[in-house]
């Protein structure tokens, strides 16, 4: 996903309002029949595509001319006939991205108030304006933002999305094949002269692609059920582990945090499930041809999860400094788990970043992002994978996450539990196994 330095300022940068309290009225003339009739229209309005990566997607301040700005008369109608004592009591207002930001007091449940305000606004203005119910990071109080829908149009790209995604996909297939052929990895220049050796990397590449495919398919299926539209996935190649996973943009306005959480959790949860099954299967199956892949036992110190499973299943066979033969499925599945774990880091617009945003809100998500990038930066001094990943996050996935229609309501606890589980499993995979494998050393330890 491409970032634009000229995009609209973050929702984390609201300025203090200068206007005093306003008198408000309510519009109680909407009967239940008109509400039912308008409800489908409101839900359909969020299907409009927008550019992700900006709190108000695709908006550039210098492109806002007077025809896009809301008139004083419109603002008065919003204050007096759309907002009200029963939904959102407005105390001050200020200009915001061609629209207006209302500060005040939220009445009742945020979801119900948002629905009432949206119905009234559509009854007055049809599809001219879009409502966002956000949280002001300055004081953690709800604020309402109303902007013209013309300012939410997506930006065009010079290269068709499918073409760029296809090019990235071909390069990723090549790096996945190359990763599973050590002879070529040690001398990249010899690859062109030995392309026939790439077929030896096909089984490992297929296992990793299976895990990545399940990950992306789960995103797509859950997103469809939640009314969230996803862009074409961009597979990201990696010389070290074959692939860094896929970058998948959200191209419409997500209704609420629970919907974002469902979509974000679905991919890594499915990827972890398939990866763990294949990892366990690899430990139980005998090495291919009685030999398999010979690795030093110390390699299992690189992951707390993989090292713990290896110690549990292999027992005394796993000794410090001793080569061990394992089924190659162990290595392939581990690579798939690592890719899912990296995407579960709570930073930017990674799955983990979207999970942390959906669970704890925009302010906490920004802090998680800063902390994660800082830790990755320190890790990059010792690990080149961390270096490339922090660069990828910073340039392509740093966010901020585009605003949801309604960001005040917390997700259901069962989805929160799943989100925390994903973050925890990702942490177990990325953290090293700190304990020695040999029982004698363990006793002295």
From TrEMBL:
Q: Which GO terms describe its molecular function?
A: metallopeptidase activity
Q: How does it sit in the membrane?
A: Multi-pass membrane protein
Biased composition of type Polar residues is found at: 10-33
- Asked if the keyword Nucleotide-binding belongs to this entry, the reply reads no
Which family does the record assign? Belongs to the peptidase M50B family.
Record-annotated Peptidase M50 domain positions: 205-371
Entry annotated with the keyword Amino-acid biosynthesis: no
Gene Ontology cellular component?
Answer: chloroplast membrane
Q: What is this protein called?
A: Peptidase M50 domain-containing protein
Q: Where is this region: Disordered?
A: 1-68
The organism's lineage? Eukaryota, Viridiplantae, Streptophyta, Embryophyta, Tracheophyta
Q: Which domain of life is it from?
A: Eukaryota
Q: Which residues cross the membrane?
A: 162-181, 202-222, 263-285, 329-347, 368-395, 415-435
The UniProt entry's GO biological process terms, in alphabetical order, are: proteolysis
């Amino acid at each position: 996903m491409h970032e634009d330095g000229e995009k609209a300022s973050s929702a984390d940068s609201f300025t203090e309002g200068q206007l005093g309290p306003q008198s408000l009225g309510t519009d109680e003339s909407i009967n239940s029949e008109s509400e039912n009739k308008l409800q489908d229209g409101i839900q359909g309005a969020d299907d409009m595509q927008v550019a992700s990566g900006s709190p108000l997607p695709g908006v550039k301040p210098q492109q806002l001319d007077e025809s896009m700005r809301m008139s004083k008369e419109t603002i008065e109608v919003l204050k007096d006939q759309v907002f009200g004592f029963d939904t959102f009591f407005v105390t001050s207002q200020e200009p915001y991205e061609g629209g207006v930001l209302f500060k005040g007091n939220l009445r009742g449940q945020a979801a119900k108030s948002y629905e009432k305000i949206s119905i009234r606004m559509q009854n007055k203005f049809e599809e001219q304006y879009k409502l966002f119910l956000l949280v002001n990071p300055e004081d953690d109080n709800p604020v309402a933002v109303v902007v013209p829908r013309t300012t939410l149009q997506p930006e065009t790209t010079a290269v068709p999305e499918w073409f760029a995604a296809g090019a990235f996909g071909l390069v990723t297939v090549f790096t996945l094949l190359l990763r599973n052929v050590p002879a070529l990895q040690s001398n990249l220049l010899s690859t062109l002269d030995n392309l026939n050796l790439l077929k030896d990397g096909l089984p490992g590449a297929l296992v990793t692609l299976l895990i990545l495919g399940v990950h992306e398919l789960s995103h797509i299926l859950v997103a469809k059920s939640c009314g969230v539209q996803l862009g074409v996935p961009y597979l990201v190649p990696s010389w070290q582990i074959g692939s860094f996973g896929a970058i998948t943009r959200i191209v419409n306005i997500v209704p609420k945090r629970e919907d974002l959480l469902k979509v974000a959790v679905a991919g890594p949860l499915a990827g972890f499930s398939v990866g763990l099954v294949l990892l366990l299967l690899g430990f139980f199956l005998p090495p291919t041809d009685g030999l398999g892949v010979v690795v030093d036992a110390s390699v299992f110190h690189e992951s707390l999860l993989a090292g713990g499973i290896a110690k549990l299943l292999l027992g005394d066979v796993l000794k410090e400094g001793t080569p061990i033969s394992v089924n190659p499925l162990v290595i392939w599945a581990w690579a798939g788990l690592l890719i899912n774990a990296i995407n579960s880091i709570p930073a930017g617009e990674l799955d983990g970043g979207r999970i942390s945003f959906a669970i704890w809100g925009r302010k906490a998500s920004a802090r998680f992002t800063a902390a994660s990038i800082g830790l990755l930066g320190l890790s990059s001094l010792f690990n080149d994978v961390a270096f490339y990943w922090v660069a990828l996050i910073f340039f392509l996935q740093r966010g901020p996450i585009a605003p949801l229609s309604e960001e005040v309501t917390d997700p259901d606890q069962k989805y929160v539990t799943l989100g925390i589980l994903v973050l925890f499993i990702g942490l177990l995979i990325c953290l090293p196994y700190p304990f020695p494998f040999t029982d004698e050393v363990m006793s002295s330890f």
